From TrEMBL:
PANTHER family: P-LOOP CONTAINING NUCLEOSIDE TRIPHOSPHATE HYDROLASE (PTHR13696), PARA FAMILY PROTEIN CT_582 (PTHR13696:SF52). To B.subtilis soj. It holds the Pfam family AAA_31. This is AAA domain-containing protein.
């Protein structure tokens, strides 16, 4: 089997509702469209990425990311689900049990922030991309994602005056994780629900540019199609290939591939 250069990307922001999951899900579909083999790792107790991509309900799955992280045994093969509702996208399911996992890691793991990195190691060279959907917090689960990742994407809700709230905490957290994972870099900040005609969006864009920088040129517009796709368990490509939002995710994917070259 030909070995491949694996890129591990964490999509993180401890603010809820800023589009982390939809970024992970639709980026996964677009990467497959450009010929890549993709794995999604769901580290969010709400397991929305799993509900969207998976063919089973997370509560029916025996080995999720929670069991993978908290077990001493190598459960990777059991956790990997290759049959999903997205062609060529594999999944490690999220689970409500992830809430307990943080405490277990703190108590039992000698390196609580590095469990995911060691558990995913055998997959390096097998997938082109591993995308990690982080929970809305800066605790151990997000630290695990950042410790395992090569790069991080920060989605920011552009249409909200609280969009940038706490982003400096996240940037500081990333620099702390750099002590464990010196290779981790910020791939870009991504404006979600962005409408360039709105003043609040323009302000958030300028403010992001000034405080964080690394803005993607591509912005993601508001669209009801994101919810439709989630309900129908489809990608935007399957739902409406020529829609504005689908084309935005296609542009984002091309921009990411360019940045990683």
């Amino acid at each position: 089997m030909e070995m491949t250069q694996t890129q591990i990307i964490a999509v993180a922001n401890h603010k809820g509702g800023c589009g982390k999951t939809s970024t992970v899900v639709h980026l996964a579909a677009e990467l497959v469209e450009s010929g890549k083999k993709v794995l999604v790792v769901d580290l969010d107790p709400q397991a929305n990425a799993s509900l969207h991509i998976g063919t089973k309900h997370p509560s029916e799955v025996e080995v999720t990311s929670a069991e993978l992280l908290s077990s001493d045994n190598n459960l990777l093969i059991d956790a990997l689900e290759e049959e999903t509702s997205f062609r060529n996208v594999s999944l490690i399911y999220g689970s409500l049990n992830l809430g307990k996992t943080e405490d277990q890691l703190k108590e039992y793991s000698p390196r609580p922030n590095e469990e995911l990195k060691s558990k995913l190691e055998p997959l390096v060279g097998i997938y082109d991309f591993i995308l990690i959907d982080c929970p809305p917090s800066l605790k151990i689960l997000t630290s695990n994602a950042l410790s395992a990742a090569d790069s991080v994407i920060i989605p920011i809700e552009s249409g909200s005056q609280y969009g940038l709230y706490g982003v400096t905490d996240l940037i500081n957290h990333i620099s702390k994780i750099n002590r464990i994972n010196p290779n981790l870099k910020l791939l870009g900040t991504l404006l979600i629900k962005h409408d360039k005609r709105q003043n609040v969006c323009k302000l958030i864009q300028d403010e992001t540019e000034n405080t964080v920088g690394y803005l993607f040129n591509t912005t993601i517009p508001t669209s009801t199609k994101v919810n439709q796709a989630a309900i129908l368990k489809q990608s935007l490509i399957a739902l409406d290939k020529k829609s504005k939002i689908r084309l935005a995710f296609q542009d984002l994917t091309n921009e990411i591939l360019m940045r990683l070259k």
